[in-house]
Amino acid sequence: MRKFIYTLLLSCLILPLTAKDYKVATTAEFNSTVKTLQPGDCIILAKGIWKDAELVFFGEGTKEQPITLRVEESGKTTLEGLSSLKLYGNYLIVDGLVFVNGYTPNGDVIEFRKGTAKTANNSIVRNCVIDRYNQPNRLEQDTWISLWGQNNQVVNCYLGGKTNLGTTLIVWPNGEGHSQNYHRIYRNYFAARPRLGSNGGETMRIGTSHYSMENSNTIVEGNYFEHCNGEVEVLSVKSCENRIINNTFFECEGSVVLRHGNRNEVSGNYFLGNHKPSTGGVRVINEGHKVFNNYFHALKGKDFRGPLVIMNGVPNSVQNRYHQVKNVEIYFNTWVDCELPWQLCVGSDEERTAIPLTTKIAHNIVYCPEETELIKAFDKTTGIQFADNLLIGSKGVEKGTGFVQGSVEKSKSANELPQISSNLKTNDNVPFVTTDIDGRSRGNEKAIGAIENKGKATIEIASSKNCGPSWYTPAPAPTPNGKIISVKPEKDALLEAVKTSKQGDIIELKEGVYFNSKKIAIPHTLTIRAAKDAKSKPVLQVDPANNALSVLEVGSNLNLNLNGITLDGNLSNGSVKYAIATIKEGIASSYNMYIDNCEFANFKNEEGGAIYKAYKGSFADTLTVTNSIFRDSYRGFALNDEKEAQGFYSAEFMTFENVVFKNIQQWAIDFLRGGNDESTLGGHLTINHCVFDNVNNNDGQTIIKQTGLVTINITNSVFFNSPKVKYPVRLAGRHNKISFSNIYNAGKTSLTNEATEGAGMIYTDPKFKTGTYVPEPKSPLINKASDSTNIGLKH
């Protein structure tokens, strides 16, 4: 009997204890319970809202019996307010957390460590959601997921709507315990990342420049990236021995960038641009990379955002600049309907003089029948070997060394994606290429391009349907569907109407003067327009005696439409400083501004005043002005507050069409993007059918000031009646251009760094009818615009 009892007690000691589930309803309960967790245990967050919950999950599980943190019911438990999660220990699983309606208080939403000494290893975060969980200040930096330790995974998560500074997900292979980490990032849904307007808007980064020679061995596999537009680098690789495989990049304004580090693989990915501007593919820097079995479709990015970009390097480069491209293999890829698909030696300048060496581009297909130019080289390509590439453009099949003659076969994939393949084969021994992009086996004789034209696909293309938590659907953005509010011209009537308005309302103004005792703060998407029966434009004014800096103050995360109104700064007791200004603080995200058929006049405050003021930190994704006049004011549009020379700028797309600037004491536009940061290629200024009359007529001055804008296109416009001006505009960069325009008594355009003055320029008197901008019958402007109408205004 004693022997039996002894045996029973011994078996209890060596058998694992029964795993337990612990349901907790408060942070205090969580904190006390987590200390007791044993291998196999599970701590369950009760349904409901967990407010300001800074959770620390830790324990020592085993491979067979991990410790789990999960929710009571998927989608019914949310962490809100100032909430975050840190985890450390071994064999931990985090499942089903949802972070919404708040922001992290400590730099990371989910971090695989606590402090620097306690790290998570062999752990998984899965089926979690971080949705629009943004700092109230868009320039306050944070990271949504920070991967430390080794052998960790992020699986089936949804990360979308990040609007503030900071990379969405970072892998940190920083030294002992973190390098050679073998992390896996699999089947996640990386949803919309709006344009940030600065560096620091990557969706994913693997490594840092300082530790870029460390092996990370991270696998990024089967993820779906959609509208990730934060900056030029969607996925930035800054370490060695990583694999970016079988992902889909859908309408992303950026690229997979092999920025620092060596021996990385990019294979089996779909880059789908859908003909959207700035959509990119792969950019190559450094050594030993393999880029194969990728499919690039309808990409329209230029320069650093090109479909394939191979960079020039800096001789003896420091760690954070551009190392020379060497020993790179680019095999079995397909480009279809892409603009300028291959761009080689990009960035060649006085610093980046090291051309690519021992690089091979072979067995690829380029099928872009509408494109006249398929390859553009910015330096010598003697270090690049071409072999067995089939290139078809508008001029037919490319000929020469390294190119083959043939045709392509067209088909559609299971998800209706146009696919291009070829019967051309190669016997080239490429041991690392054993399948095609969709998993079809490749034998000794391989079809060129990304797709074998025989066999059944075995890899499911990553999409919104098979990535992220299956149970989660993000809440749709609010659709403006407001009511029409009719307002009469009484003191503060408009001010009160805006205060009581709802998202998407339309405020209609009768003709008359709308005097406001203080500025009108625009809190949400709104339209302010003239009533249909108004015989003249309603006039908006504000009393500067009450310290009102502007007539209108624009918040963030909104659209403001102004139509058919006048903003007037001319009052007997002084001139208000700005017609429109952005908010100075609490700028959580971008805004859009649309001005049509409006007049702005008499904003004459000479203490830094302007018609439009964008404060530091504000960012207009779109600022469009049409059919309007700006006159008799001190300055025009001031987007010049980002003075730190760090690459920040105040608007992505700024457009003026059929607009007059008249009698402006200083510049019409001052648009600044300071510094030489290359992670942002933004700042787009378009001017079409505009007139600049007596603007900044001062010795040595400029009508349109700009610094660092990548794209400027001025067409069909008139600059005149400013005889003291030195430059109507100073253009710098090969995407800066003026054409089909009239410059008379307004200086001469300055052109540097490949900026161009195109066809259709006229330098004689425009000959307008007196008091108008209508050309006389003998005007040189008649029918000379690029669209065969008159240069100048459209009437």
From TrEMBL:
Keyword terms of this UniProt record: Lyase, Signal
InterPro entries the UniProt entry points to: Pectin_lyas_fold (IPR012334), Pectin_lyase_fold/virulence (IPR011050), PL-6 (IPR039513)
Domain of life (superkingdom): Bacteria
GO molecular function, one term: lyase activity
Signal sequence coordinates: 1-19
UniProt-recorded name of the protein: Poly(Beta-D-mannuronate) lyase
